[in-house]
Amino acid sequence: MDKNDHYISLFACCLIVKGASRATIVDIQRGSYIFIPLEIASLLSSENKSSINDLLIPYSTEDQSEIIIFFQHLIDQEYAFYTMEPELFPEISKEFKVHNLITNAILDFDADSDYEVANVILQLENMGCQTIEIRCFQILPISIISNLIFLIQNGLGVVRNVQLLICYDRTVQESKYADLLNKVSRLTSITIHSSPINESHPFQEETKRINYIKQKVSNETHCGYISPGYFTINKSTFLESQSYNSCLNRKISIDVKGNIKNCPALKQSFGHFKQVNLSDVLQDDRFINKWSIKKDDIRTCKDCEFRYICTDCRAFQEDDGDEFFKPLKCSYDPYSMTWSEDFFNK
């Protein structure tokens, strides 16, 4: 049936991101994306309220056929639909709201770390922190790791998501980690670095996972890599990335020595945890200013069609003297639409 008298509309959860050479439609509900030409992106723009017939007028017969084929492809992939009443389908609000002073934190440990974890957890929960990543670069006894996790489990209940990164220990059987996942409701994943294998084992109907990775994570510099495997596609990340930094917004971290930072890999410290309360750091403009460095402000990133679904990194940049430079560990070129092969061979 001829649908050219209809309008084509994107589902409200399907949002266009224009890059330098192509665009994406990001489905923040299904967690997927699809590439589209910039010309198609312009035709689908929310400012363009014309019927398909009217959209096709400026184009040759051959181009019209190609456009219709592409529209049908979007329909088939459930990114768009035909309608005679587009006004009945308003866009979703693009406003990002969060009331927590801090939403996420990183706590780094090695064998010499001696800052008081219980006090850290209490301060984080008082600031509304809901996600904590605990990273252990060296082998630590499973008893110490368990104590760290149970301090959070037995806290005020504000923290809802705990992610654990630990070093592979051949003396510890997987059943020990599985037992920890089963006992601690807030613990959602355990990633074991420096492992002899790369594997992922789901638990509790795939709501939790134990991940084994060969990568050696010996210190805080083993972060900041950007690739499709690290993309996060959901409403919260997409909307946050348009107004705030996708890595540092409302994040606070403590490095292995107890220094308070935006991220453990950043050089600037805002004091040692034993001398400074976490809430006091939030009064320092130098700390919170990094929250607002969004992808649309960053060189190269602002021209990238992935900019609202990838994370950022201000610790490692192509130019250390300019905080608005592209992340050093991103090998994607939005102008040629290619990833560096050297990056994937590392």
Task: Describe the fold and architecture.
It comes from Pedobacter alluvionis. This is Grasp-with-spasm system SPASM domain peptide maturase. It is a single chain. This protein has 346 residues and is of the alpha/beta class. Helix content is 23%, strand content 20%. Strand 10 and strand 11 form a beta hairpin. The model has no long low-confidence stretch (mean pLDDT 92).
Main attributes?
23% helix; 4Fe4S-binding_SPASM_dom; Grasp-with-spasm system SPASM domain peptide maturase; Outer Surface Protein A, domain 3; rSAM_sf; TIM Barrel; alpha/beta; 8-stranded mixed sheet
* Biggest pleated-sheet summary: 8 strands, mixed
The figure for the number of domains is 2
CATH superfamily of the largest domain: Aldolase class I
**Secondary structure: number of strands:** 15
Query: How many helical elements?
Result: 10
